[in-house]
Write a structure and sequence with these properties.
single chain; 271 residues; alpha/beta; seven-stranded parallel β-sheet; globular
């Protein structure tokens, strides 16, 4: 699977949950364990890790740098910019060019790199023209600090506006078996050859509680989480799921979903 020029496995890892509290705020309860989860992900074949400067804020990127640098050859680290965290329960859009430039400088330092592989605008800021936000990202790309640009939480119209300013190689939107509100964006990405990164790929756990998911899981001797992830992989060639967890056991369970094959009957039952 390619994201721009980057070759990645179709199942990545969302690193947000190594900060194991509801607000993704501050430090993990066990820093050494967080490092172990990140290292284990790479050991079992993950070569695409997604994070954001707003996770912590800053903590998640710092943990990745501590645990994984110097990075294994071919390991792609994606991060995001454009959110402010004034408090534990706050995720405020702030896509002013000066904030975006500040986010980049911090991300480069915390991840211990000279260039971000995939830099994503985390959201659309209604107070700032999209073209200004992306313009700052394109400037950074031209300066050699960013390889590829992606966007997150965008609708089709916003994506088309973004594509007039930047070469957008990925979209990261909320999507799961139980929440397909971004279906039109997914189809648009397929047509354009853009990678679609579903965040919250297992929902809030709701997808795992669906009776049809449980039935298929029982039939295949798999877990509901594995079935939900395998469904995403089968749903579209553009899909790059990034399930996240702070548990090594759940990480290994999730990554095993890449080997789970769903038949046409299974897919029909799940749809």
């Amino acid at each position: 699977m390619k994201i721009g020029e980057l070759e990645v496995n179709r199942l990545g890892f969302g690193a947000m949950r190594v900060i194991d509290n509801d607000h993704i705020w501050g430090e993990p309860s066990d820093r050494k364990h967080a490092h172990k989860v990140l290292r284990r992900a790479v050991e079992i074949g993950v070569n695409f890790i997604d994070t954001a400067e707003s996770y912590g804020p800053h903590t998640d990127e710092t943990l990745i740098g501590e645990a994984l640098h110097p990075y294994a050859k071919g390991l792609v680290i994606a991060t995001k910019c454009g959110l402010a965290r004034p408090g534990p329960g706050r995720w405020d859009a702030d896509c002013r060019p000066e904030k975006i430039r500040q986010d980049l400088d911090g991300s480069l330092k915390r991840l211990r790199v000279e260039r971000i592989d995939l830099w994503q605008l985390h959201t659309v800021d209604p107070k700032v023209p999209l073209e200004e936000s992306l313009g700052a990202m394109v400037e950074a790309q031209r300066a050699g600090k960013v390889r590829h640009i992606g966007v997150s939480n965008f609708n089709v119209k916003q994506l088309e506006r973004a594509r007039k300013v930047a070469n957008v190689v990925s979209v990261q939107n909320k999507y799961s078996l139980d929440d397909r509100s971004a279906e039109d964006v997914l189809h648009h990405c397929e047509k354009l050859g853009i990678a679609f990164l579903p965040w919250y790929p297992l929902g809030d756990g709701s997808a795992l509680r669906l009776s049809r998911v449980k039935k298929v899981a029982e039939k295949l001797k798999a877990t509901p989480a594995q079935v939900a992830i395998a469904w995403l992989l089968a749903k579209s060639p553009a899909m790059v799921p990034i399930p996240g967890t702070g548990s090594i056991a759940h990480l290994e369970e999730n990554m095993a979903a890449a080997k789970l094959k769903l038949s046409k009957d299974d897919l029909a039952a799940l749809d």
